[in-house]
Amino acid sequence: MPRTQDKKIHLAAFVTAGPGRPGGWRYPASESGWLDAAYYQGIARTLEHGLFDLAFFADILAVPDRYQGSNDTQLRYGALGSLRLDPVVVLSIMAAATKHLGLASTRSTSHYEPFEVARSFATLDHLSAGRAAWNVVTSFQDAEARNFSKKQQVPRNKRYDRADEFLEVVFKLWDSWEDDALVFDRQTPLFADPEKVNYIDHQGEWFNVRGPLNVARPPQGYPVILQAGASDRGRDFAARWADAIFVSHDSFDSAKAFYTEIKDRARSHGRDPDSLKVLPAATPLVGETQAIVEEKDRALRALVDPHAGLSTLSYHLDVDLSAYPLDAALPDIDVPGVQGHYHEVREATDRDRLTLRELGKRYGSRYEGDLIGTPDKVADGLERWFRGGACDGFMISAPFQPGGFEDFVRLVVPELQRRGLYRTVYEGKNLRENLRLARPEVGAWRARAAAHASKEAA
Which EC numbers characterise this protein's activity in its record (predicted)? Predict the structure, then answer.
């Protein structure tokens, strides 16, 4: 599926509201402003200067303790979930410092309620003039469940059932106000037209919600929906509901196969395949010269303890990898957690004959071999995936914050623009327009829900 010349790469930024990478936060050029508003506003301005579509914050609702049955390695090494601020609050801070940058956050369908999610993202969409996005996840860690007065997670075979109904309720709530329901007529008086604000009266297996929402319909109609499902059920969920999907691959071939499959799934649900953007993870390491990059690479890798990477991977897979020998290969295991990460590390282990110790070092670093180098080399790697039909753009992570984003914007973005692969100005008025996605009319969600119902009936 080669890329036509007029299409441009979409760029999202994977930002962590905390240290994030066990080696990156220790790197001398990293800044430790994780609890300061100015830190996140600075990153937001950098990304907007680089014309990124959006900044995305994943979220974790517990300090992971899957590895060795303890959170010691997470806290000690500053790994993935050692510190995470509430991302919606952080995005509100970033919204105040920008005008165009999209603002995306995870909210779990396992532990939140549809009303609070619908109101939170509708509010962010209004206050940012149409820049909000919600990353829909189904939580899988019992450590998270225990923080929400539950002994364990929703059973694996039920998580997406709950998520499907959750999405339906949220869309109903966003649609409970018609687009022209707010009147603001001081003379009549008529603040909002009662005939255009409707109860939803949803009664289902998981939720009973009367509505209406107490926030007007969002400027984008619906905030942009992100998803990262990699299991068969997760892919089908994304193909129906998502506007963009965030995935992780270890090779061009696996990325291209996924891209073709997910577009076919979207088409089978009656959607235009181009209405679902595929953004694989990419962590470039760039410098002005090859010698500078090689020194950065050496220094960053030396700062990663293998236990830190394995602790994060254990969280992602929901498997305690400390049960296996460090100097043996990752065994074939049944993974209750994130299937995409398992496929990624399984491919790398088999191809490169990695031991768990080596895998832990690599997973703690997590930047790609063909994206390490000078700006032209990094741009070559991005162009190959984009032109070759493996993606619609990329979810860019920084090996260290905020300098990794600053290097990318300063060095790689101009090279992509020179090649005609990337925008030179923001063309849209909101996030949907910048992603080249249509604004959904009231009730547009029903077609996606119907696709699920017809498949369930079959």
Answer: 1.-.-.-
The residues near 454 (Cβ < 8 Å, ≥ 6 apart) are: none
Q: Which residues contact 442 (CB under 8 A, 6 or more apart)?
A: 175, 178, 179, 217, 221
Q: How far apart are CA 166 and CA 227, in angstroms?
A: 14
What domains are defined for the chain? Answer: 10-289+368-457 (3.20.20.30)
pLDDT in tens, 60-86: 888 889 899 999 998 998 888 888 999
Q: Report the candidate in 352, 378, 383 with the shortest Cα–Cα distance to residue 367.
A: 378
In this structure, the strands spanning 132-137 and 224-227 are parallel
Classify each residue of 239-265 as buried b or exposed e, where b means 16 or more C-beta atoms within 10 Å of its C-beta: bbbbbbbbbbbbebebbbebbeebbeb
What pLDDT, on a 0 to 100 scale, did the predictor assign at position 456?
Answer: 57
Q: Mapped to the 3 state alphabet, what secondary structure does 2-19 carry?
A: CCCCCCCCEEEEECCCCC
Residue the block writes with tokens 């790689």: 412
> Looking at the chain, how many residues does it have?
458
DSSP 24: G
Q: Is the pTM above the cut of 0.70?
A: yes
